[in-house]
Structure of DNA polymerase Y family protein:
Amino acid sequence: MTGAPIRTLLLWCPDWPVLAAEIVDGVPATGPVAVLHANRVVACSAPARAAGVRRGLRRREAQGRCPALTVVDHDPGRDARAFEPVVAAVEEVAAGVEVVRPGVCALAARGPARYLGGEEAAAERIIEQVAESCAVESQVGIADGVFAAGLAARTGQVVPPGGTPGFLAGLPVEAIGRPALADLLRRLGVRTLGGFAALPAGDVLARFGFDGALAHRLAAGHDHRPLAVRQPPVDLTVTAHHDEPLDRVDAAAFAARMLAERLHARLAGHGLACTRLGIEAVTAHGQELHRVWRHDGLLTAAAIADRVRWQLDGWLSGSTGRAGARPARPTAGIVRLRLVPDGLLARGGLQPGLWGEAGEERDRAHRALSRVQGILGPEAVVTAVLGGGRSLADQTRLVPWGDERLPARPGPPPLPGAPAKPPLPGASVTPPVDGSSGVVPPPSAGAGRGGAEVTGRGGAARAGRRGSPVPPWPGRLPPPAPAVVLPVPLTATVHDVTGEPVLVSARLAVSAAPARLAVGGAAPTEIVGWTGPWPVDERWWAPAEARRRARFQVCLADGAALLLAVEAGRWLVEAIYD
């Protein structure tokens, strides 16, 4: 905290929280607007101040003074995001900018003053730059130190070099920004910053503590720290311009490989790698194309080139790699191609995946699967991701190799410090033990074959253990999972001992015990054990998406165990147990 303070240029955007709400949320700042935090006003617009609204007022009092007041919640993230373009505009004129807080930034005044023709000329140039680039009004103050420059910016002053102590001396003690300290100083008879600065530093430290001593230094025109210069983010994007439009896949693939190698070399030069890749293209007719590829790993030069080639192939040939409608081709060839890396992290800083720690086996498997993708396409190699859901088909999602392995639906969270949850709606199929159902009922099924978990209007049933939380997918199949899940369920017929079809009523009453099962046109097989039904009533509030069915587990005489479902009076085979 020694040495003369740096000559500082500070840019201040008045009422910035209000302007940020207008920029991000579209709240008109020309009307009476107040930004509230903890039910108190932290910023307000000029029309609101004209109506009597002030900082620190409670919400009800502010609305009482101005009934037409528009209230906005305080959002520091919104303020910071909206201020970033302003800082970028200042950096186009001068380097070494420090963001003091959203709405305020500071920089050393010496450099801009020297090449812009003086401090006043530099202040005018920066104000014009912000107004032209961001359409934001601002004020600039220049003084010795950040604190004094901030006070000078309130009135748009340029304090002469060495004149900062005199400029501060006549300001009231409230300008220090510490209401409690200012109130105490006024009760002690100290009303100006000059009077506060004249007190002995040792006595101030002993009476007011460290924060009071810091305020004493600021009142005397000394800064407590140098400027913390912001480092602008490095531009890692690579762009290629083509005089001859690319309208053939082979030419586009060649250009993609060269651009991918440039991007990988630029990232490697900074010790970085990316996990997401943005691909942007502009056609000769001005059509803009954009797509983001995600990767569950570090994108190498070959992986970047493959993804760019796949995307260009999809754009130029109108192919999606999936069955279905083909997208329309661009109306002209590509004249500009741009790669934007995202999800940056240090090389080697990724969590190991399926094949354990980084090693020869893991790298060999990754290269082999990536090579197959390069030959057959991105969706020729897929991996399964387990997630949530009540049906077996909902619990599995196939994603292309290398993409982020995110489930389509959240799965049930594990209970800390507790064993796995007992099965709720299902049971393990066993040989008959009492000649009735031949299946051991699940722990939570209760007495009888219909005592099972119900979802839908009745809500989720209680968990298997008293006091344990209900999982997010009540009615889902418990482990162990079936060995084979049929992509398309097979139709079946179930009959009782008299040959009559077995029916399940809306109240889950089974007409008779299942005795024989016939899958498709095959001969009937005797059922030696069964359990169920377990109902699932999904999305009953949306008639177009509603689905209601009941599930059974059966054990056949030939040793097979099946998962059956009856829906709209039809029996279906959904899965086969091993």
Summary: The chain has 14 helices and 19 strands. Residues 503 and 511 are 5 Å apart (CA to CA). Residues 320-325, 414-470 have pLDDT under 50 and may be disordered.
